[in-house]
Amino acid sequence: MMKKIFIISICVLIVVCIGFGVKYLVSVNEYKKEVKNISIKNVDLEKVKDGKYTGSCDVGYIKAVVKVQVKDNKIMSIKLLEHKNERGKKAETILGKVIKAQSIKVDTVTGATNSSKVILRAIESALQNGEKA
Question: Carries keyword Membrane (predicted)?
Answer without folding.
Answer: yes
